[in-house]
């Protein structure tokens, strides 16, 4: 469990499953800033054939980690950090084409938690959800072909769920054009708020309401385990890579009463996108 030095603690967990694919091309990480006051979560879903996608996703994580370690919390904005992470990773992924003779691409979704504020950015169709209890407050919009059709009134949300090109992105890191980045933020966070970041190998099998209910009811670790297990069942043997990060804001518990010395002593531990028309 990661804790902020405030009246609210962060119960956080990241988890992955290879699914039914030959290789795990997703990457996920949860980082604590050297100052101890800021947390960064990142999910990247790599694409580009054997090894290429994994290299692209790993580059997103490597770039984010390096920039976050050098991030000046008081002098740089979250947007500056996100722009540097995504644009630098984009250029380095493009360079991988010449080194590895692959066509690597990656999505990216990032969440920065500091004080009582959350800021996020994404490119592609890896998603971020913000829940208060089980109620959905906001969700990122995929940079995908079908979401473009929905936004322009050419396709209904129900039709989009079954569309044959629903996995085609219109932007990504590593594409010919510069990646398109969307930003979001939430202020006045409180105990009961939760954030879920995940690749499409997870969200593809759930409604927003189902995700909110699981995250609200369970600890971060148990929520990750339960969501992955259910996604595997619903995938029916043809599931994609799965990556998920859950961050829950919980109120600190009051100090426990001193244990009666006559009693037995013990301890307890509680611990889809502006991709170039590529289908993943």
UniProtKB/TrEMBL annotation:
| Protein name in the entry | Protein phosphatase 2C domain-containing protein
* Species of the source: Dentiradicibacter hellwigii
Query: Which lineage is the organism of this entry classified under, starting from the top rank?
Result: Bacteria, Pseudomonadati, Pseudomonadota, Betaproteobacteria, Rhodocyclales
Q: Which residues does the UniProt record annotate as the domain PPM-type phosphatase?
A: 11-249
Residue ranges with Basic residues bias: 262-280
Region annotation Disordered: residue ranges?
A: 253-280
Question: Which positions are tagged coiled coil?
Answer: none
